[in-house]
Amino acid sequence: MASSPGDAPLRIISGSARGAKLAPVPKDVRPTSDRVRESLFNALGQFFDGGAVLDLYAGTGALGIEALSRGMERATFVEKNGKAATTIRENLRRTGMEDRAEVVRGDAARAVERLRENGRQFNLILLDPPYRIAATEAKGVLMRLGVLLAPDGRVVVERGDAPEEVLRGEKGVMRRYGGTVVTIFDRFDLTVNVAVCPGSFDPVTVGHLDVIRRAAGVFDHVVVAVGANHVKDAMLLPADRARLIEKVTGDLDNVSVEVMEGLLVEFARDKGARVIIKGLRAVSDFNSEFEQAQLNQTLDPEVETMFIMASAKHSFLSSSAVREIAGHGGDVSEFVPGEILESVVEAYSGTRPDARRRIKTESKG
Ligand code: PNS
């Protein structure tokens, strides 16, 4: 159980400040109890040899100060609550650690962003989000910590009575201390690999779906990017093409679909993706894909294009074939996923390419 104001004072458990009595806990702050703190540091290994610690949602600062006491060199505390920030400073004074620490008063997510921009690295990051912070917000902060972590660093997250759905599928080593759940992550656990899967998808075919599915099996998250501006003669609006893809990828938790305006490499960067995934069918795809990959590499050398080879049965399947066949009233049930067949037939029938060209020419006057 966490202690509360009025309980016995918190103390530093081990190391150079062992036994130091900390300042009274301000109202609204839920400090990590001495017992949980002790178990947690035992799980990490008793002592540290230098390095930097980041204590987010720091509260009284007891966790970060315990890390300093046990041999870490420097600490950064982030706390939004003004009274708690004052308590951290007082606790640093009481333990004689003021010179080794900075206290940032502000929002954890924003502080993390700034630390990232400044290229800071930490060997230990402690995250003890208050109960009132939404689990999704805390998870958002957690997933951004990978780049702040030194190669052998670890992130420790403490959650009181964390609901099962928050913890399910999460990596890291989890331990329970009464009602408190503590999870220890290394950098590998927090590295999120995002890929962008771009295309016109006019319409999405079973071949596209195969590539998206296989990419989703390799990457942590796949963003399907539906080209907007550049696809001049698409039959459907980008938002409608995106809706069809959403429908057929509904069972894939790690796939999202977005309309892409502007340059693909900028879109990828915006999504935190280092990889562009394209499907490659027969040799006839190669020239155009090679050209696009090289252009994108020139535009942003940090974004890699990777190819997933189409399955043999999809080698000659294309959106243009679907448009052609549906436009002539033919059967496209082999080529598009069943869930969207009706919508595709409705949207693309009677829209033979020659008819479309005529309509476009006429409308241009
Ligand atoms: O399905 P498609 O027609 O091969 O998709 C083409 C797409 C959307 C991937 C391509 O046109 C694209 O990347 N457009 C974004 C604009 C851009 O970045 N162009 C420069 C690199 S080709």
- The tally of strands reads 12
Helical region count?
14
Structural class: alpha/beta
Helix content: 25-40%
What is this structure's SSE topology?
Elements: H1 34-44, E1 52-56, H2 62-69, E2 74-79, H3 82-94, E3 101-105, H4 108-117, E4 122-127, H5 135-143, E5 149-160, H6 164-167, E6 173-177, E7 180-186, H7 187-190, E8 194-199, H8 206-218, E9 221-227, H9 238-248, E10 255-260, H10 264-270, E11 275-280, H11 286-299, E12 304-309, H12 319-327, H13 341-348, H14 353-364
Parallel strand pairs: 1-2, 1-4, 2-3, 4-5, 8-9, 8-11, 9-10, 11-12
Antiparallel strand pairs: 5-7, 6-7
Bound molecules: 4'-phosphopantetheine (PNS).
